[in-house]
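Appendix B. Chain record.
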Amino acid sequence: MNGVTAQSLREKGVNYHLNWGANLLHLQEMAREYEPSYELATLLWADNIRECKILATMLMPPEEFPRQLAMQWISETPTQEIAEIASKQLFSRLPYAKSLALHLITQSDVMPQLFGYCILGSFHALSPEEKQQITLHANNTINNGTLPIGLRHAAHNALLRIER
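Structure tokens predicted for this chain:
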């Protein structure tokens, strides 16, 4: 447990049933000790514990993660931190990642959009039509001052990556 990190997260309003404050590198080391497992990942995700949710994204086999469950996890994601980690550790590795991300950025809710932009940041091979669609949505998101800064930042990062 990292008490300083756990306390800092609580002070920032990140409320979990339990929060150990473990850092990402430590959780990655822990995950390496286990075989990827659908059953274990779904059990870990069900706990309202920050570290369990992060470990779930590291232990879920991407090829066994159905789109319906992906959408459920997105709707249950409590924080931007979990969304960013889940996008990198799991969602960007899904066989249907690109189509999922393109769908998510068109949604009205913030969390799906955040996932969509974070996932898109991992792609390098996009068609001109996909780039155009992403650019349109990202510019609308970036220029909408009523949206959370974290979402606008994710859209900006996705836009920078696809322009490379």
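Further analysis of this model is presented in Appendix C.
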